[in-house]
Amino acid sequence: MENFTFYSPTFFAFGKDAEKDTGKLVRRFGGTKVLIHYGGGSVVRSGLLDRVKASLEQEEIPYIELGGVKPNPRSGLVYEGIDLCRANGVDFVLAVGGGSTIDSAKAIAAGVVYDGDFWDFYSGKYIEEALPVGTILTIAAAGSEGSPDSVITNENGMFKRGATGDAIRPKFSILNPALTQTLPPYQTACGITDIMAHLYERYLTNTPEVEVTDRLIEALLLTMVHEGPRVIEDPNNYEARANIMWAGMMAHNNSCGVGRSQDWNSHNIEHELSALYDCAHGAGLAVTMPAVFTYVMQHDVMRFAQIAVRLWGCQMDFAHPEVTAKAGIEAFRRFLISIGMPKNFEELGAKEEDIPKLVKTLCYGDGRTGSISGFVTLNEEDCANIYKMMV
Amino acid sequence: MENFTFYSPTFFAFGKDAEKDTGKLVRRFGGTKVLIHYGGGSVVRSGLLDRVKASLEQEEIPYIELGGVKPNPRSGLVYEGIDLCRANGVDFVLAVGGGSTIDSAKAIAAGVVYDGDFWDFYSGKYIEEALPVGTILTIAAAGSEGSPDSVITNENGMFKRGATGDAIRPKFSILNPALTQTLPPYQTACGITDIMAHLYERYLTNTPEVEVTDRLIEALLLTMVHEGPRVIEDPNNYEARANIMWAGMMAHNNSCGVGRSQDWNSHNIEHELSALYDCAHGAGLAVTMPAVFTYVMQHDVMRFAQIAVRLWGCQMDFAHPEVTAKAGIEAFRRFLISIGMPKNFEELGAKEEDIPKLVKTLCYGDGRTGSISGFVTLNEEDCANIYKMMV
User: Fold this and answer.
1) What's the pTM value of the predicted model, to 2 decimals?
2) Closest Cβ opposite residue A239 in set B1, B13, B216
3) Residues B384, B356: contact at Cβ < 8 Å?
4) Is ipTM beyond 0.90?
């Protein structure tokens, strides 16, 4: 195990009606003038936004609003939010929505107190300071409610990049599983896929002797394999939603990823797809992961065999471990299809002829020099081969 | 799953030589005058105490010292520490040692800023305020490095009670697995047993639909079953020590215990033993748990069968689940014996003739009214029967 530090000082309020304490939590964590940031549609229609406002009003905390966050959140709205906060003396950013809304809120929070262009953080600069952020989560997926990360799409070129810093870990996150019950099955399945991707990306490590984090990752994956189909079958299953929601947070607050190298190649390869085609991130991951895993399996057959046995219940083929390793990848692929995820470029809405363009942005965008690194290093040819496997 | 809140804002610095940053961390979390609290012997002999002092001196942070913490830490030293802190204007308590030292430090930290008798907190009063506490952990066991809990033995009657409050969660905890390599095998095994007890106490729940926390608990138990024997065989196995150390923290910061009722009957039954005989808490738990589990197994046979299958690899007897449930308890008992733990009263140094006294203190001490509650409610007769099973 490698040396590490771990700091997750987010206060989680979990359960039915948890959002009623929004005002009290904003006050507890120092907010006196709030930006409520959200997407649109469902948060308004469900009455959630009104309940959040009522809770702030009860505590006599003034607020302004900025809606309009889209999936794969854009840099343009972040600039708008930064200006709005500065003009109105906002000292707390409250995200009401899913990972896109939270990531956009984090970008605004970091940008408000920064002299330069907020995009610097998405080009590698560590976020040292930000306005406090609170979240009210409406989809279990990105894990942004407990993470120090944010991903934004730069509209100047349509590419996605991530930023990180303990300063953007939410001060509090309100997790009410009932708020996720209105999600369409497709979005629910995208969330399940994203959570599983956060776990697989941590599982694919080159660090030896990481039993405790291996086991924790497997525990959360086992939860997803058990609860995922239940919630697809019955979207109103509160208990399954609750188990998925806590797993989604734990999958990405990094308590199960400490002290080990991680992969993130699948995320990087997918980011080009959702940036170019505006497809759902989870859907892109569903098409990406089986291809990546098959391509890199030979790098550590026993690691893939281990998860095949422990997660997917495959029989270990001790004479031919690669048979077991492959069976585990195939079981994952079938699972993703069974919950309604796309299986190839066509179903995703991606085009084979764009592969050269995808590879170029992936391997050279934003300062990269011809490859991406993780569990293995993948050069242009590798990345092109992987995209071709997804066609 | 039940509604819950979760807040674990401890900064963890984990790995080789992590204690070199002690001074910087004390400064980061606001300490300007420190009480260094420790036991004695090994912390001094190993040079750790000197290294800690040097790190504080490097940051020019003044300190005073209070050593002498004993296993099953006593109320007398807590009173002494409170007076010492007040007389010297201490604003930060730094524990260097194991769970006993950390628990004693937490009691002092809470007592210093409280007008009444600190024992009020150990009689049920929630700890709302305390001096900041930091820890440098030297044994993986109690989980106090990441928990809001403290257990102290009242010398006026020799009984152990616990206190809790987010205010006594450490601001930082330094976890260097190498510091645990000098522990004798018996103490190491006691620590392993304590960690497993924290997991079993959470596993025994009456809350349905808790897949995610069930799986997380199993993950940490699987880690202990894998790494425990490795570290008993080779005390210098850094990697096994590291996996156990992170598992020990995760086992008790409650991330795997949220949203579910928990047991803690085994802890309560054991506390009378270590209070009366001054035996190691882990050793007492090793004798207690198999007896308690056997006694309460019928309350939920399928829960015991589940852990028998998932943790101990028992074959499920679908026609007779109680056979599997029993096999799991027996596997746990054998495991504890295999790592060197005592198996009965005699090996523990406890006496059958004391059972009426143990039961009385257990069921009536400190405001209880004839029973203890957890996974099941146990009255005087139940508790006497359980102690008899341990003879």
Assistant:
1) 0.97
2) B1
3) yes
4) yes
